Amino acid sequence: MEETAGLTRNDLLVLGLLLDRPMHGYEILQQIRAADVDLWLAVSPAAIYYSLSKLHRRGLVLETRARGEGPERSVYHLTEQGRQAFFAGMEEALASQEPNRSEYDVGIFLLNKIPQERALALLGQRLEFLRRREEEVLKARRRAAGDPLRCAILTRIATCVRTEREWLEGILRHLRGEEMQEYRGMMLLSGDLRDFHLPDLIKLIASGHHSGTLTVTDGLSIRTLSFHQGRPVCATSRRPEGDVRDPDQVLNDIYDLFRWQEGAFTFDQRMGPQEGCRILQMSAENLILSGARWVDNWAIIQRVVPSPEVIFERRDNISLEEGWDVHPEERQVWESLDGVRNVAEVAQVCGLTEFETSKVLYGLYEAGLIRPGDMDKIRLRRTFREFAELLCRATKPYRASPNDFSCEEEVNHRAAPLPIRFNLSRIEDRTEPALSTDDLAEMYRRFLQAQQDVVRERFGEATLRQLLRQVMAQVNPSLMETLRRYRLVATSL
Question: Which pTM value belongs to this model?
Answer without folding.
Answer: 0.66
